[in-house]
From TrEMBL:
It comes from Eucalyptus globulus (Tasmanian blue gum). It catalyses: an acyl-CoA + a 1,2-diacyl-sn-glycerol = a triacyl-sn-glycerol + CoA. InterPro entries: O-acyltransferase_WSD1-like (IPR045034), O-acyltransferase_WSD1_N (IPR004255). This is diacylglycerol O-acyltransferase. Residues 67-209 form the O-acyltransferase WSD1-like N-terminal domain. The lineage of its organism: Eukaryota, Viridiplantae, Streptophyta, Embryophyta, Tracheophyta.
């Protein structure tokens, strides 16, 4: 991390400082598969013009003041330093999904590689042989909702390049649900479904936390 030199730097939020602690060091990974081969130049241009990358946190360095407190300092983003090109297959003989999972497993052990005072805390990995793009973003840059919202703001629908993407079922589906969802028993069923899946996910999370481990760290 660099040292603090001017008064225009912005302090980190308490949550951002928490995510930077050695005990936490939270990094977000997002793998996006493509139907077509990756066009590196087009992707660099799209990344550079994406509203998410224009956000101040994505073009700021992490610096320290004299008391050791973290601050953000605006800088110029060199897109070539943030795009990592991986031309060949990750592992021979594996499916694309398996190879990408292997790459993510290796990348997750290198999360300290995101830290430093030479560039903002994010990068994009282009797995050319597997037609996959991996985003690696430090959680100190934002929470899940803000990051997803920023990412979607820079995306467009395939059938309508001017339209923003939508999340959730089509409006016709929502309309059918609202028209026929007045019966009390349907509401009860929905509540029971929510309770059931919540219990299942919590139990699965606890079991994974207690017994599942990464073989690379044994």
């Amino acid at each position: 991390m660099g040292s603090l030199e001017n008064g225009s730097d912005e302090p980190l939020t308490p949550a951002g400082r928490l995510f930077l602690q050695k005990e936490m060091n939270q990094v977000i990974y997002c793998a996006i598969g493509m139907k077509q081969p990756l066009d590196v130049d087009a992707l660099k241009l799209a990344i550079q013009s994406c509203p998410m990358i224009m956000h101040p946190r994505f073009c700021s360095l992490l610096v320290l003041d004299s008391a050791g407190r973290e601050h953000w300092r605006r800088t110029r983003v060199d897109i070539d330093r943030h795009v990592v090109l991986v031309p060949g297959p990750i592992v021979e003989g594996l499916s694309d999904e398996g190879a990408v999972n292997e790459y993510l497993a290796d990348l997750s052990t290198d999360s300290p590689g995101l830290m430093g005072d030479d560039k903002p805390l994010w990068d994009v990995h282009l797995l050319m042989a597997h037609q996959c793009m991996v985003l690696r973003i430090h959680h100190a840059l934002g929470d899940g909702i803000s990051l997803v919202s920023s990412f979607l703001a820079g995306s467009r629908q395939v059938d309508d390049p001017e339209a923003l993407p939508t999340i959730g079922p089509p409006s016709s589906t929502m309309r059918r649900r609202s028209d026929g969802g007045g019966e009390w028993w349907k509401a009860v069923v929905r509540v029971l479904e929510v309770v059931w899946f919540t219990v299942v996910f919590v139990v699965e999370f606890v079991l994974r936390t207690m017994w599942v481990s990464d073989r690379r760290r044994r």
